């Protein structure tokens, strides 16, 4: 991911493929629930690869903390990667954003059962290309006082899927 920065957008933003930029605004705090100093972040993540491997992207959708607040969206063009690598990159993207926001509690939802079960320690990480990504994800997750990851059906993960595909679009354009 060297040299690549995630694209942060609000749901109302327009696509910007001209540069990988980090756009900071009031909306970057959209999925944070603050109670004094307690910060909770909820993210839906997805990875996409066109071909396996192929042009890939990672996406993270941050649910609004309260009704009427905007959702946060991050996506990243990964270049050439496998789908499972893209799934892990999406998790790392969400965890990095949660760290940046000072989260005390992080809840992640993913439609990748493999990723969820590997992070929970129920499935072994066998693929050599995924081992460093899994180690980094576990390291980042352990930094939070409270972390959970759950599997969701694909239909419940459409926003993250859309963002992952925006990242894959960026990889194809590069």
Structure description:
With 174 residues, the protein is α/β, with parallel strands linked by helices. The protein has a single domain (7-173), classed as Ribonuclease H-like superfamily/Ribonuclease H (Nucleotidyltransferase, domain 5, 2-Layer Sandwich), CATH 3.30.420.10. It is built from four helices and seven strands; from the N terminus they run E-E-E-E-E-H-E-H-H-E-H. Strands 1, 2, 3, 4, 5, 6 and 7 form a seven-stranded mixed beta sheet that branches. Helix 1 (83-100) packs parallel to helix 3. It is globular and about 40 Å long. The chain starts with 6 loop residues before the first strand and ends with a helix.
Blueprint (SSEs and pairs):
Layout: E1 7-10, E2 32-35, E3 38-49, E4 54-62, E5 72-81, H1 83-100, E6 105-110, H2 113-119, H3 131-142, E7 146-151, H4 158-173
Parallel strand pairs: 3-6, 6-7
Antiparallel strand pairs: 1-5, 2-3, 3-4, 4-5
Brief summary:
By secondary structure, the protein is of the alpha/beta class. It has four helices and seven strands, in the order βββββαβααβα.
Q: What is the helix tally? A: 4
What fold name goes in the CATH topology slot?
A: Nucleotidyltransferase, domain 5
The H-and-E topology, N to C, reads as EEEEEHEHHEH
Under CATH, the homologous superfamily reads: Ribonuclease H-like superfamily/Ribonuclease H
CATH architecture: 2-Layer Sandwich
- Number of separate strands: 7
Characteristics of this structure?
about 170 residues, alpha/beta, Nucleotidyltransferase, domain 5, seven-stranded mixed β-sheet, 4 helices, about 30% helix, about 30% strand
